[in-house]
UniProtKB/TrEMBL annotation:
Name of the protein in its database record: Cytochrome c oxidase assembly protein CtaG
InterPro entries in the record: CtaG/Cox11_dom_sf, Cyt_c_oxidase_assmbl_CtaG
Molecular function, one GO term: copper ion binding
Annotated TM spans: 12-32
Keyword annotations of the record: Membrane, Transmembrane, Transmembrane helix
Name of a matching Pfam family: CtaG_Cox11
Length: 102
C-alpha cells in the first residue's frame, strides 16, 4: 500500500480551517444581534414601561401563619418569632425566624 505525500496545500488547509472557525465564532455574535434586531426576536422590547401601581385596600386583612419543622433528633431549633400576623395585601412586612444550635 502506497502512502500519499502530504503537500503544502494540505497543511495550509489544516491550519486555516480552525483559524477560520475561531473567527466565525466571534462573527456570530454581531450577526445574531443584527438578525434579532431585524426580526424582533431579541427577547427585549427595547422600551421600558412604568410599573403599574396598585391601590392598597386597608380594609382587607389576611392572616398569615408561619410554621417550621425539623427532622426529629436534628440538633437545631428553628422557628418563627411570631406564629401568625395579620397583613394588608400590598404592604411589605418583615418576619424573623430564629435558629439555635443545641
Amino acid at each position: 500500500m502506497e502512502r500519499k505525500k502530504i503537500t503544502k496545500g494540505f497543511w495550509i488547509k489544516l491550519v486555516s480551517v480552525p483559524i477560520l472557525m475561531f473567527f466565525f465564532a466571534f462573527a456570530l455574535v454581531p450577526i445574531y444581534e443584527v438578525l434579532c434586531d431585524i426580526t424582533g426576536f431579541n427577547g427585549t422590547t427595547g422600551r421600558v414601561e412604568a410599573e403599574q401601581q396598585y391601590e392598597v385596600n386597608e380594609e382587607r386583612l389576611v392572616t398569615v401563619s408561619f410554621f417550621s419543622s425539623t427532622m426529629p433528633g436534628f440538633p437545631v431549633q428553628f422557628g418563627p418569632k411570631v406564629n401568625s400576623i395579620e397583613v394588608v395585601p400590598g404592604k411589605f412586612y418583615t418576619v424573623s425566624y430564629v435558629a439555635k444550635n443545641n
